[in-house]
Write a structure and sequence with these properties.
461 residues, 0% strand
């Protein structure tokens, strides 16, 4: 790294010191809004959509499975969103991309709350639900990468995992808000009113909070390292960016990002979605009590994630992530027996432990993935690696688990499923190069040398 480039880096560090909290807040608020809306669908799919948008078959689990199929559509759309918005984000910037995604998710979610049910529209009702779910997932596919990179590229090298874990912590906040609204509505309304119109209120509220997220995101700035890379791409025709370039130059990084995401994504949806299905279908557990358990667990998850981010800076990315994969594999083998006790405290404890173990994989993801790719293609690499995985991980996890529960009446196939997923992720973690404290500028310089590209501005000084 040359003198001029180091001066730019030092200027960037000053910017981080003065404005990093503002960047983190902007990223978090937008992420809260986006994930409030996305997870609202997840919770509603287990409690409402199976009954409201699909015909009755006499088996409650059939409706849940059909609702989870529409839920999976959003995951299929996410890689497409990651490709499109990753390309836009690497070319135009993280900020305008995030402003666009939050509007798209907000509009699609609001319209979901306006849809008539199967009784009014027949099969057109679930068809419209699927279309809106696809649009929602498409936008979210570009949201996550931009939100975490906005923070990661502003963060000091020695504390990147901590600062970039805050957008991750915003995810349980979004889920918390979605659960809280549904909890209040299900508590104050009768079951008939909740199924009839009460669930819609949570979807309509997205129209209010989306304006807050959009406004805050208009006041953030791009990271100096991105502006430098953008200027270089525009000046040097030999410098490429985006999805095609990252697939060509960093296929190993894409596969590693996918492997990191695999068990984490599966585990999260088993904890927050399938746990509800299991307790409702097997034990007829009270809906309000279920939502209260999730509320408590989400609060703890929010607190734990940044602390695990600190550990990833102090101990290294690999040992922390590996601990999460190993411990996550054990979770279902003690959690489902805890569910079977029907003790409210024990149930809350089982869900909370699951999310705490999940945090050991989740908190360090933004730092690890941002350190896998150079700036000119980082948005595309991070978005593609994380979002493709969601098709065969998070989207299928609650669906497969529910089908196995229907077929066998047991949680054991689901436990073995998570065990195998964690083994895959643990194996991928072992292939990583430890990048704790790495400078993103050095990663860019190494990329330029490896591929014979013009040196970054000032690198030859």
């Amino acid at each position: 790294m040359g003198v001029e480039q180091r001066s730019l880096a030092e200027a960037g560090q000053a910017t981080k010191g003065k404005g990093l909290r503002k960047i983190v807040a902007a990223s978090m608020v937008g992420t809260v809004v986006e994930w409030y809306e996305f997870f609202l669908y997840a919770t509603a799919a287990t409690l409402v959509f199976g009954k409201y948008f699909f015909p009755s078959t006499g088996n409650e689990l059939d409706g849940v499975i059909q609702a989870f199929l529409t839920y999976a559509v959003g995951f299929v759309a996410r890689p497409l969103g990651g490709i499109v918005f990753g390309q836009i984000g690497d070319k135009l910037g993280r900020k305008p991309t995030l402003q666009l995604t939050i509007v798209i998710v907000g509009v699609s979610t609001f319209l979901m709350g306006c849809l008539p049910g199967f009784a009014e529209l027949g099969y057109l009702a679930p068809a419209l639900l699927v279309a809106l779910r696809f649009i929602q997932g498409f936008a979210l596919g570009g949201e996550w990468g931009g939100a975490v990179l906005l923070v990661a590229e502003h963060s000091p090298n020695e504390s990147r995992a901590f600062w970039s874990s805050w957008p991750q912590a915003a995810v349980p906040v979004g889920n918390l808000l979605a659960t809280l609204v549904l909890f209040v509505m299900s508590t104050v309304l009768s079951s008939a009113d909740f199924l009839g119109w009460g669930w819609r209120v949570a979807f309509w509220l997205s129209a209010v909070i989306v304006f807050v997220g959009y406004y805050i995101r208009t006041h953030v700035t791009e990271a100096p390292i991105f502006l430098e890379a953008k200027a270089q791409v525009e000046k040097e025709q030999a410098v490429s960016y985006g999805v095609g370039e990252v697939l060509k130059k960093y296929p190993k990084g894409i596969l590693q990002a996918m492997g990191l995401r695999f068990a984490e994504n599966i585990m999260y949806y088993l904890v927050v979605s399938f746990s509800i299905v299991y307790l409702k279908s097997v034990h007829k557990y009270d809906t309000s009590s279920l939502l209260l358990a999730l509320l408590i667990a989400h609060v703890v998850h929010f607190v734990v994630i940044p602390q695990v981010g600190r550990l990833a800076d102090a101990w290294g990315r690999k040992p922390v992530y590996l601990a999460g994969a190993v411990a996550g594999a054990a979770w279902p083998f003690f959690a489902f027996p805890m569910f079977d006790t029907l003790n409210p405290v024990v149930i809350v404890l089982a869900v909370t432990i699951g999310l705490c173990l999940h945090a050991f994989m989740y908190a360090g993801q933004p730092a690890i993935m941002s350190e896998l790719f150079p700036t000119r293609m980082r948005y595309s690499g991070v978005s593609l690696g994380s979002q493709v995985t969601s098709i065969f991980a998070g989207s299928l996890a609650p669906l497969l688990a529910t089908q196995w529960l229907k077929d066998t009446g047991s949680w054991l196939p689901t436990a073995v499923y998570l065990l195998l997923a964690c083994a895959v992720t643990a194996a991928v973690v072992l292939t990583l190069r430890e990048t704790r404290g790495a400078a993103l500028e050095d990663i860019d310089d190494a990329d330029a040398r490896r591929h014979g590209l013009p040196a970054a501005k000032g690198a030859e000084a």
